[in-house]
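Bench notes, bay 3.
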Amino acid sequence: MTSILIAFAVVTAVGLIAGVLLALAAHFLHVPENEKITKVRECLPGINCGACGYNGCDEYAKAVAEEGAKTNLCVPGADSIAADIANVMGVEAQDVVEMVAFVGCNGNPEATSKLNDYNGVHTCVAASMIYGGPNDCKYGCLGCGDCAVDCPVSAICLKDGIAHVNPDICVGCGLCVKRCPKNIIKLIPQVAKVAVMCNNKEKGGAARKKCQNACIGCKKCELNCPSGAIKVENNLAVIDYDKCTNCGICADVCPTKCIHKIG
């Protein structure tokens, strides 16, 4: 009995000594936290999407408070959060360039076909690992909804085997962009009025055989754009939204109607 009491006392004493040492270490070795980091972090939505260019809200808050990063990089937060951050930092508020996600595929069942039936794990990542997926067009949406699962605001739905984004709900976080194994989801300015609904980079004839709505690289959009905002690169039309004036001429002249007027 005595030996048990002695062992108990020793363990208790060691615990108390360790506790005191930890308390002293916490007091004397404590590194004061920058209060502005905490205040900036409280302004952020906590989605941790990386749209700001940093690995999550914590890293962005630290960059703003300690490195002078811009206060308007939180796309999901939009202008209101940018204003809150600017107020914390005591600087002038800057506008946020609002973005929305857009699915660059119009390969509905009427325009394209499947090469086989996929019965594996129901994710786009898994389906794409088997010969690029079951669709005839290997550049198109696989329709398993990985993007919809990752969307924090439920802005994505599936219709006719293709993902569709509701721009009125989308906050432009870009998580769906990172998730898509086919890289067909892009972030475009919220004010954009035209977008290319195709991702096929094959030559015109080959692309059209795979999908009737495919871009054929004819360059009619490029030749008719008055602001030089659209170019055909790797057999696919690409819009430079910094130059685009939203005139819609590219959509009007597109023979396959792969360029859509949106909004």
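Next record in the batch:
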Amino acid sequence: MAHLYISDLDGTLLDSSTQVSKRSASLINEAIGRGALFTVATARTPATVEILLKDIDLSLPAIVMTGAAMWDHRTSRYVGERLIDDELSRKAVAIFREAGLEPFMYCINGNMLDVYHHGPLTREEQAFVDARSGLKLKEFHLDSSLLQVEQAEGVILIFGMGDNELLSHIAGNLDPDRYSVSFYEDNVSTLYYIEVFAAGVSKAAAVERLAAMTGADEITVYGDNLNDISMMSVATDPVAVANAKPPVMTAAARKIASNDDDAVALDVAANFLSHEQ
């Protein structure tokens, strides 16, 4: 009987300083070394996942970009990526622009992620870019023309940030039969994010694929934010950290301590030990 453990990153495995503590890394590595099937599921891209998880010896692929792909740390390659159809990508860009927001276009090119954006950045967008620039697996192209954004190829994610009302309007104009839309509040600000993917993309679908790959019939999922609820719904053991948003608490079967208390790592270690005995 195989048991799969999957944790969200921000607000869940990562502490308030956006780091994996040394204690958490040690506990998780010990469990992995003894055979625990552990990985993460995050909205982040491999460019930052590689840095944040540098002290964890992941043997399983990480679920990245809200399930649009997996990332194999051992081979530095994307696995099972789901791209947005070119025509649907152009239609989504038009919807963003009609609302007055220029999107970021994330495009896979081998193991690289090229990100295209047209026009000036808001202060929040600039801070977002600055925090993610200079990474070996991602390159921003902030001088892109209107046409370069519109005709981008290999698009895996269309991303925007702003207030609730603006992004709610955009989300409401995207056909749910043609796109998967993830719309949620940032953990550390009043901003909201919108992520547009190919239809059928979700953390839940990726968790089910990974469970099939590993032969797992038990799945423990840890989360804190609204975009974690889908994967919690397919888990046999959905778990919320103490700092989780109220809807996540409702979706969980049990609650643990906060992300600043090494809660996920402690729970994985204890849970895996009880299954070993």
